[in-house]
Write a structure and sequence with these properties.
Helix 3 packs antiparallel against helix 4, helix 4 packs antiparallel against helix 5 and helix 7 packs antiparallel against helix 8. This protein is globular. 65% of the residues lie in helices and 0% in strands. The chain is mainly alpha-helical. The protein contains 8 helices and no strands.
Length: 140
């Protein structure tokens, strides 16, 4: 795998983890710090249970699983090019929009904005990351 030297590396990028299997690369690039945050994904499922239809609740559970996978996957994609890392952050932001839709509550989207800020801090250079963090925290 060739790492581009023209693009700024992700702050979480660990050069020694490039040749490792995905699960070891994830661990080396910060998955251990991200895994405890998955416990917070259970909160919307308990708050919304019984308040929305079964179909929306199943959709909510699917979006929560997607969001958890994207959060932990942030540590796996640190070696990608800058465009791919931006797309990854966009996917996390999109999943927050889906979370608000299926959970029938806009506050659910705001509750998980720290997931976007953590991904931005791990994947994109600080000058751009701080703009994303400020924007998401203000709007979210």
């Amino acid at each position: 795998m060739t790492i581009s030297t023209r693009e700024p590396p992700a702050p979480a990028f660990e050069a020694g983890a490039v040749g490792l299997p995905w699960y070891r690369r994830a661990w080396h690039q910060g998955a251990g710090y991200l895994l405890p945050n998955l416990i917070f994904l259970a909160l919307p499922a308990t708050f919304v249970h019984g308040e929305v239809s079964t179909a929306r609740y199943v959709g909510l559970l699917a979006v929560l699983a997607l969001l958890g996978g994207l959060l932990v996957g942030t540590s796996v994609v640190a070696h990608w090019g800058e465009r791919g890392r931006w797309v990854w952050i966009g996917l996390i932001m999109g999943s927050l929009g889906l979370l608000a839709y299926f959970g029938d509550n806009l506050s659910l989207m705001a509750y998980f904005t720290p997931y976007v800020t953590v991904a931005a801090a791990m994947l994109i250079p600080w000058r751009a990351a701080r703009t994303v963090m400020l924007g998401v925290s203000t709007i979210g």
